[in-house]
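ok trying this again, last paste got cut off
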Amino acid sequence: MAPPQDSEQYTARHLAQMLGLGTTTITNWTKRHQAPLAFRKSGGRILIRWGDLITFLDAHPGLPAVARARDHIRNAGLTEEAVQPSKPQNLAAVARAAHAAARSASQAALTAARKEKDSAAKHLQIVEDLVAAMTSLDRALTTALGGTAE
């Protein structure tokens, strides 16, 4: 799906469906006291331009539903940002998240490798003990049978 043009208008209900949010969330955004989501009314319906929605989302990153809306937009391919994050703070956030994930994964791999190393050392000791026991058994059989054991 191609990203919508900034001038395309949608009803609050349609935007809510596109963003995976409730219609009430969209209408509440239009009623905010500070920097509300811009809209116009036509026939009693709220119409919101796509560009105004993106401007609102950029201006209010701290609102809980904004993060969900952004994820939905990105995952649905409704913005070029899904391919090329345009803002340095977005790139920095992605880099921090990637760094944290890499650190966590490498720590888990190191822990698993250490456990495997301990496990391998224990298995080696068991096999060495088994070989020593077999050697002792061979000697005991040789002595008991008065000959050579095979």
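PB: full thing came through this time. The chain is about 65% helix and 5% strand.
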